[in-house]
Amino acid sequence: SRSLSRSPFNSFLMKPFSNSDLRAKIREYTLKKRLRQFVSDQVYERMQQGFEWMKFRRCTASVLFCDIRGFSRMSEKISKEELSFLLNSGFFSPLDDIVCEHGGMLDKHIGDSIMAVFGVLADEDQAARQAVTCARKMIEQMSREAVSGDAPSINVGIGIGSGEVMAGLFGSARKKEYTVFGSPVNVAARLEGMARSGEILICEQTGKMLGNDPSLRPLEAVQLKGMDREIKIFTVAEDKQV
């Protein structure tokens, strides 16, 4: 457990203090706790150290997009309340945990999609390996969820793009977020859109970063939307298929 001296939510009241002071401090604590949920663990921890690291910089990263297959059909079969609960408890919560457990920066949720980035705030050399391992665990988790209850099963497709990105604090005076921009983001999003249920698609650069990985199965080169050339892509086999 975290000691009081290291807690990011520490605040103090000097005696004597009134009930109104105490209520105000409780509200402040609660607000900080809620705001804590609006940024990833890695970003929040870095924020405790200052903000110099948020300046724009180039780095090598692997970007992962995970999206639910057949989400529109699912949303027509159950109520909005049930769908909201299912998304939070059966999709976002377990998969967000997997991202963090494998060294990823949880970037954002976009509708029924998760965007995660590996290598920006951690070891760049391990970015692709961490992203693929994370993707496998996501597929496994959704398979377990499908047989563990009465709720509708959630099937996902995953795309991973790797290469140079620009990382930094993007936005306006009204809203900013620490995120990445670059070709790997677009490639990952496009590959996720192509992935079938339970499939992980990766780009050629991700494959190169993985080295001689026997789990990779080459597919026909494709020309992704917004790109002027074809790129090689691979599907990642399950561990038991390697």
Helix content: 25-40%
* Low-pLDDT runs: 1-9
* Mean pLDDT score: 84
Distance between the termini: 40 Å
Number of helices: 7
Tell me, what's the shape?
globular
Rg (C-alpha, Å)? 20 Å
- Kindly estimate the percentage of residues that lie in beta strands according to DSSP: 15-25%
Summing up helix and strand content along with how strands pair, one would put the structural category as alpha+beta
- Report the count of strand segments: 8
Run of helices and strands: HHEHHEEHEEHEHEE
Major β-sheet, in short? 8 strands, mixed
Write the layout of secondary structure elements.
Elements: H1 19-35, H2 41-47, E1 57-69, H3 71-77, H4 80-101, E2 105-110, E3 113-118, H5 127-146, E4 155-171, E5 176-181, H6 183-194, E6 200-203, H7 204-210, E7 216-218, E8 233-236
Parallel strand pairs: 4-6
Antiparallel strand pairs: 1-3, 1-4, 2-3, 4-5, 6-8, 7-8
Helix pairs in contact: 4-5
Explain what you see.
This protein is of the alpha+beta class. The chain has 7 helices and 8 strands. A hairpin with a 2-residue loop joins strand 2 and strand 3. The longest helix is centred in the middle third of the chain and has 22 residues, at 80-101. It starts with 18 loop residues before the first helix and ends in a 6-residue tail after the last strand. Mean pLDDT is 84; it is low at 1-9.
